[in-house]
């Protein structure tokens, strides 16, 4: 005539709770659709030629500027930053076939992600000319960033696609600009009032 | 010899106390708890839909999970540069709360103006930054406050002169995946966060 003892019922309840907790934990490890289709990143440092499989990218000098100027139909146009312009010199070269640039992003140490300036037309990513294999395109990438968000490490990410539309599993270069807090402070101290963003060069 | 004694298995009701008095007490307590919950529900207005808050005046910030918007004024104008169609413009302060850029298109449905009188809906939001109205921007940078012009083409059936005011509803924002593309994007939820009645000035 055994009723189940209180202890065994409590044990079952406790075990159920543990299993539910484990289920919830396991769920948080599920790969999200974002992760499944994210661009495939190839990491590297500033100054190195980073091989992203479908293209290579090299990042050179980094400057800060209060405004940038670019040639436009109506003469040079000056754009003042809300914050500061991060002006990055870069060269990009597809390895196999013509490619289109996705809009690059700059990520800071607090996980903020800033999009490259889309209001300029002579940066290497916004130029409408497709990237041809074997012909490196050298020029500028610019990011308009609030000064307080210049927290290290600053990482530049750029992906390239075949058609400019579908960026799933695209090739991506992820390049650490290699600036610590001191470097950023020094760059800020000698920020240029104006940097001219010239047309990209091909050589 | 009774080898198989009856009543070994747990039956429904086994978890209840055995004594009739204890059972009666338990049910009495349950009845009181449920009764007081029903009373509390009745006192707070029952399950009927709460009436929408009356529209507030412009100039006050409205916040959801994605952004804070402060609408100031509205106009109906014809922007000669953009075409012959009349455009509804709302001047506002806008700042996002997330750490990644937000495409302007994500605001469709979350910021929902309804034209008064007639309650006509507008589609396809565009965002201009006041500091550079000619600049081509596509996204809001993370947590960077901007003075913006939110613009929508006026529906063809609405005569520009007939518009008296705009009831601007801000919905809650949710990140959900699509049916085919399961990557999560911002979209409107089902709760109104605020409604503003903005008189329309002629432009």
Question: Could you characterize the architecture of this molecule?
Answer:
The complex is a heterodimer of chains A (203) and B (203). Chain A has helices spanning 6-28, 33-37, 181-189, and strands at residues 40-45, 49-51, 55-72, 75-94, 100-101, 105-107, 113-115, 137-145, 155-161, 171-176, 192-197, 201-202. Chain A has 203 residues and is an alpha+beta fold. Chain A folds into two domains: 1-30; 39-202, Immunoglobulin-like, CATH 2.60.40. The model of chain A has no long low-confidence stretch (mean pLDDT 91). By secondary structure, chain B is mainly β. Chain B has two domains: 17-50; 62-202, Sandwich (Immunoglobulin-like), CATH 2.60.40. Chain B is 12% helix and 40% strand. Chain B has one helix spanning 20-43; strands at 62-63, 67-78, 86-96, 102-103, 111-116, 120-121, 126-129, 139-140, 146-153, 165-177, 184-202. In chain B, strands 1, 2, 3, 5, 6, 7, 9, 10 and 11 form a nine-stranded mixed sheet that branches. Chain B has a two-stranded antiparallel sheet with strand order 4-8. In chain B, a hairpin with a 7-residue loop joins strand 2 (67-78) and strand 3 (86-96). Chain B is elongated and about 85 Å long. The model of chain B has no long low-confidence stretch (mean pLDDT 88). Classes of the chains: A alpha+beta (203), B mainly beta (203). The interface between A and B is medium-sized, with 25 and 26 residues. Chain A: InterPro entries: Immunoprotect_excell_Ig-like. Chain A: Keywords: Signal.
């Amino acid at each position: 005539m055994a009723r189940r003892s209180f202890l065994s019922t409590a044990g079952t309840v406790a075990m159920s709770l543990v299993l539910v907790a484990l289920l919830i934990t396991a769920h948080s490890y599920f790969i999200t659709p974002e992760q499944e289709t994210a661009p495939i990143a190839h990491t590297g440092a500033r100054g190195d030629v980073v091989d992203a499989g479908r293209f290579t990218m090299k990042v050179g000098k980094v400057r800060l500027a209060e405004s940038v100027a670019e040639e436009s139909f109506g003469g040079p146009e000056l754009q003042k930053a809300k914050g500061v312009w991060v002006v990055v010199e870069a060269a990009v070269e597809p390895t196999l076939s013509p490619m289109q640039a996705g809009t690059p992003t700059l990520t800071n140490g607090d996980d903020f992600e800033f999009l490259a300036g889309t209001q300029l037309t002579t940066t290497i990513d916004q130029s409408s000319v497709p990237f041809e294999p074997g012909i490196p395109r050298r020029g500028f990438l610019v990011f308009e960033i609030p000064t307080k968000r210049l927290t290290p490490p600053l990482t530049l990410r750029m992906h390239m696609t075949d058609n400019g539309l579908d960026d799933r599993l695209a090739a991506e270069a992820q390049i650490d600009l290699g600036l610590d807090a001191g470097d950023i402070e020094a760059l800020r101290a000698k920020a240029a009032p104006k940097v001219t963003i010239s047309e990209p060069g091909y050589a | 010899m009774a080898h198989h004694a009856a009543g070994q298995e747990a039956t429904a009701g086994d978890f209840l106390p055995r004594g009739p008095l204890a059972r009666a007490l338990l049910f009495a307590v349950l009845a009181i708890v449920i009764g007081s919950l029903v009373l509390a529900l009745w006192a707070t207005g029952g399950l009927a839909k709460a009436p929408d808050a009356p529209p507030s005046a412009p100039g006050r910030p409205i916040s959801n999970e994605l952004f804070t918007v402060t609408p100031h004024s509205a106009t109906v104008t014809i922007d000669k540069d953009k075409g012959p169609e009349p455009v509804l413009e709302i001047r506002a302060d806008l700042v996002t709360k997330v750490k990644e850029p937000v495409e302007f298109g994500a605001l469709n449905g979350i910021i929902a103006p309804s034209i008064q009188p007639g309650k006509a809906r507008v589609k396809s939001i565009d965002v201009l930054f006041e500091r550079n109205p000619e600049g081509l921007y596509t996204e809001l940078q993370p947590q960077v406050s901007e003075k913006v012009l939110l613009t929508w083409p006026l529906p063809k059936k609405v005569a520009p002169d007939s518009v008296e005011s705009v009831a601007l509803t801000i919905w809650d924002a949710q990140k959900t995946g699509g049916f085919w593309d399961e990557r999560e994007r911002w979209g409107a939820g089902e709760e109104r966060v605020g409604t503003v009645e903005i008189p329309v000035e002629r432009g």
